[in-house]
Write a structure and sequence with these properties.
It is built from eleven helices and 14 strands. By secondary structure, the protein is an alpha/beta fold. α7 runs parallel beside α9, α7 packs across α11 and α9 packs across α11. The structure holds UDP-4-deoxy-4-formamido-beta-L-arabinopyranose.
């Protein structure tokens, strides 16, 4: 594919930074915007270190129309990968309006600014959480949306905005990737998941226990209708997720319009199975206790990942052991996370 200039919103974040590595190593130019509300500028130093490449970075809030437009004026943007969003299920039930403002407002401002600058190619970070508490397992893109929390609703609303934009702006090409549960880290251990504050997500919580920063995992419920009673998720290696974004860019030109693809492995893992797998990877016992369910959680989310394979011949290449090994390798090398 001809090298492109790709605007990566949220490029300092967990998935964004890993995707920047894949894009740069594939010969693309990258322009990053991030407001650092849940990321570290030093993650971008690690991207430069791993790739040996330099790139422009702007500290911009996606809702800042002038600030965002200035970035489009400064660079010949060919396409956009949009990661920037708040993304914690539990947190979204506490601050729903912030989730709607940032996730939906930010996305709407982005697509509007793209249109003003005649940029018509977008890969959008969506989420399996829009399927809600579906009994269908595995979940296909044709399954109905039933968001059960403000985070999931915000992602579903963004898909609706983008899908409708494609109806009225025929030259637009948008691919939405519905991530299941990205975990793991770059194999060098120089890039990984380091959320600000106490982690909402299970894998950084586990790795911070293993490195001594936290003491015990609360397992949110063991009364789900699953084999061991704990909730099941489809964990996918973050480098597989990043690679899928590189491939999605190549397929934006297949046709115009709005397309959706699940991004998962097709295999489900319970919380207790994840605890055991991570404990094996780090060689340590992980103290944990059963607690109540978390508001907004669902029993099971497993991907039917057949579409992306059929359309693009793409599938995940890393398994749960790889994910746990790489997540631990990052945390072990960076006990306190990224340098501030
Ligand atoms: C996983 C499981 C929890 C913390 C994430 C992202 C979201 C989306 C989907 C991309 C659940 C349990 C967690 C803890 C626990 N990805 N858990 N104790 O909620 O599935 O959502 O993946 O868009 O952006 O947030 O991930 O890691 O929070 O939870 O028992 O301290 O672990 O109940 O069953 P979730 P998670």
């Amino acid at each position: 594919m001809k090298p492109e200039t790709v605007l990566v919103t949220g490029g300092a974040g967990f998935i964004g930074s890993h995707t920047c590595v894949e894009l740069l190593e594939a010969g693309n130019d990258v322009v990053v915007i991030d407001d650092y509300s849940n990321s570290h500028p030093s993650a971008l130093d690690r991207v430069r270190e791993i790739t040996g490449k330099s790139f422009a970075v702007y500290e911009v809030d996606l809702r800042d129309r002038a600030g965002l437009s200035a970035v489009f004026e400064a660079h010949p943007i060919d396409s956009v990968i949009h990661f920037a969003a708040k993304k914690a299920v539990g947190e979204s039930t506490q601050i729903p309006l912030e989730y709607f403002d940032i996730n939906i407002g930010g996305t709407t401002n982005l697509i509007r600014t793209m249109h003003q600058h005649e940029v018509t190619r977008l890969v959008f970070s969506s989420s399996c959480s829009i399927y809600g508490d579906s009994s269908a397992a595995p979940l296909s893109e044709a399954d109905p949306a039933n968001p059960t929390n403000p985070y999931a609703l915000s992602k579903w609303m963004c898909e609706q905005v983008l899908s409708q934009a494609c109806v009225y702006i025929p030259e637009l090409s948008v691919i939405a990737l519905r991530y299941f549960n990205p975990i793991g880290a770059h194999p060098t251990g120089r890039l990984g998941e380091d959320p600000l504050g106490v982690p909402n997500n299970v894998m950084p919580y586990l790795s911070q226990i293993a490195v001594g920063r936290l003491t015990e995992l609360s397992v949110f419920g063991d009364d789900y209708p699953t084999p061991d009673g704990t909730a099941i998720r489809d964990y996918i290696h973050v480098v597989d997720v990043a690679d899928a974004h590189r491939v999605a860019l190549e397929h934006l030109d297949d046709r115009d319009g709005f397309r959706v693809f699940n991004l998962g492995t097709g295999s489900g893992v319970s919380v207790l199975e994840l605890v055991a797998a991570f404990s094996k990877a780090c060689g340590k016992e992980i103290p944990h206790r059963i607690a109540g369910r978390r508001l907004g959680d669902v029993a099971s989310l497993i991907a039917d990942a057949a579409n992306i394979d059929r359309e693009w011949g793409w599938r995940t290449r890393r398994d749960l052991a790889d994910m746990c090994r790489d997540a631990w390798n990052f945390q072990r090398q960076n006990p306190e996370g990224y340098p501030v």
